[in-house]
Specification:
It contains four helices and eight strands; from the N terminus they run H-E-E-H-H-E-E-E-E-E-E-H. An eight-stranded antiparallel beta sheet has the order 1-2-8-7-6-5-4-3. The termini are far apart.
Length: about 180
């Protein structure tokens, strides 16, 4: 337990040094955790947006994600429903289905529409920075479909969310350089 706590502290310290902040706290409503993250990306909001909505990129950006599939979409582009399937391993694969409502290129709100997770809701917000670049805010609540000690779930999120924000930065910069 002590080494896990030390690892979590080191991950958060490294993230802060990279201009990335993540906070994972107990959710007062009983979900596994309330996640908040912020990252500055030296790319315009349109480039960051393009990465966020690209289902094919999702498995490269989220550590345990095996697949992303769009199940249903608004022909006008105002929303879609996606299915994510996580990889197995120590825990069984998890299927999450969620609806995302789009306000391009500034906000994505998402909420559970099916699947295994008990709770899944949140949003991405993009704010243009003076002089260029984008500040990305991420917030979500999630709860696993099986018994996981909440402190363990939060420890995993403290590692995985900074990784996903780093991947978002990497992919947005790669897209912008094309």
């Amino acid at each position: 337990m002590r080494s896990a706590l030390l690892a979590a502290v080191l991950v958060l310290a490294l993230a802060a040094r990279e201009g990335l902040r993540v906070e994972v706290s107990p959710d007062p409503d009983g979900a596994s955790g309330l996640i908040r993250g912020v990252v500055d990306i030296p790319a315009p909001p349109q480039a960051v947006w393009a990465v966020l909505v690209d289902c094919d990129l999702a498995p490269r950006m989220v550590r345990r994600l095996k697949s992303c599939r769009i199940v249903e979409r608004d022909p006008a582009g105002g929303w879609d429903v996606r299915e994510h399937i996580s990889r197995g391993g120590l825990i069984p694969p998890v299927r999450s289905v969620f609806r995302s409502d789009y306000e391009p290129p500034w906000r994505i709100r998402f909420h559970r529409a099916g699947g295994d997770l008990k709770v899944l809701e949140g949003e991405w917000r993009l704010l243009p920075l003076e002089g260029g670049g984008t500040r990305v805010f991420y917030e979500s609540r999630a709860s696993a479909p099986f018994a996981v000690p909440p402190p363990l779930a939060r420890m995993v999120l403290r590692r995985d969310v900074p990784d996903a924000l780093r991947a978002l930065r990497r992919e947005a910069l790669a897209r912008e350089s094309r």
